[in-house]
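Researcher: Good morning. I'm working through a list of sequences from a screen, and I'd like to move beyond sequence-only analysis. For each chain I'm collecting a predicted structure so we can compare shapes side by side. This is the next one on the list. No need for commentary yet; just the structure.
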Amino acid sequence: MGAGGRVGVSPAAHELEPLMQAGGGPSGVATLGVLGAGTMGAGIAQIALAAGLSVRLYDPLPASLERAERAIAAGLDKLAHKGKLSAEARQAAAAALTLVGEVPALCGVDALIEAVPEDLALKRRVLGEALATVGPEALVASNTSSLSITALAAGLPHPERVVGLHFFNPVPLMALVEVVRGDATSPAALARAAALVAEIGKTAIACDDTPGFIVNRVARPYYGEALRLVGDHGASPEAVDRALTMASGFKMGPFALMDLIGIDVNLAVSTTVWEAFYGEPRFRPHPLQRRMVDGGRLGRKAGRGFYAYPEGPGAPPPLAAPAASMRLAFVGHAPALDRWARACHAAGHVVAIFGDARELGPEDAWDGGFELGDAPAEERAARRARLAAVLPGHAWLASDDMAVTSTEIEVATGRAAWRLATWPAGIDAPTGLEVAFPPHAEAGLQAQVQGLAASLGRFAVAVPDLPGLVGPRTLAMLANEAAFAVEGGVAAPEAIDAAMRLGTGYPQGPLAWADEIGPERVVALLRGLQAALGERYRPAPWLVRRAAAGWPLADAPASESWR
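Model: Good morning. Structure tokens for this chain:
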């Protein structure tokens, strides 16, 4: 970055921030042209009509225009039924839609938004034809989700007029629009685009023109880790989805989400981002994606993907019978220890917290012991060994150590062992508890853990016995990719977190999540995964630096200079 540049806020974000903070200026757009009458084009047309704009919706296929007209009418009816659009405004919106099958009919529009399939040559051709028709003042935008705005504009006349406006599906419901500046995009075009986004009721978040922009880049680990857990380690899609929804608070699991998006679409975006980063291991698609696509198992639209449809993911089994009062010893030092001890006590279990296992007497008839909390690996191993030595013969040992496996704990201590995920700590009222048993764990141990979880009002979601489990591993990788994006100048930390909340429905932004967990814990887990599984898991330098300094991530000053 040149002198005076700011890492953490991209040039696009830097120029757009004052405008966005002031609420934006008028876009000068009264008539909008939309190129492409598919799902995205129809959605964009609907929200523009609802906002009072006139819309000319172009598609060369009459059948596509007819389908779009019906979908738009249904969407406007729904808004009117909910009281979000008056009867008069509903009627005016319908009258303001013009369906066109010829490009010259777009002459005179104030702005164009292209929403045709993700093919660079196709987009250039369609936009090139439209640019030859519209006036010299018209704003030109592409709704691409993964193609470079710089590359797209380079094939067009007047590249300074071209900007990215990445809407999210379903357009009427999703609040976010990523405003993407190509290398040639003028500040005036960027300002008009942001103002147009505000005028149609969406939230504009600026980002630089890098592969995947913000959301499609930072979200890649959500799918990538899930695919590796299933394809490389034998987890089931149901277990991964339940761990992330029931125990980590995501609205939809990655496999159900891939089925909804279309596994072919997800593979295409994954491949585009991976190739754009010249084979970076963090983005490498998984062979399981290709096998699903080659087999025609594309998700909901094909009737079968990772799940069969219309049934979709099955409901989790009912809660086990709550365990009777158990005697539980807690050893360690961490907020998570206190939180879980209090929850167990509230559920009727006899609980004691000790600073060190040596405080436990051999006569204490504990049913199980928890070793929880942060400490160096050697200290945690010693703590578990002391705890195992004083527990009675029938008692099990549980740990939230993400760096080891339950099998390793069992071998080291000679004690029936299992692990639980205690982070993230900030999820409100999760319904599940993510747990991992050794492969040979007895049914009795698993039944005890299910009963203990049920007494806490939770379902114990069993996942493979791997370092990082599912939720912590996924969250660490999401935070890591967000950190790489910050350091690369894609957008400011707060913009990345806001984009991920608005564009994906995540309960929190990944950087805010990492702050709750503790950046140093995230780095430690990533380093452990890197040692075990390779360079895909190397931590971002920006994340490492801030963790070492004890500095937060989500509210890092935008004025920081790292280079």
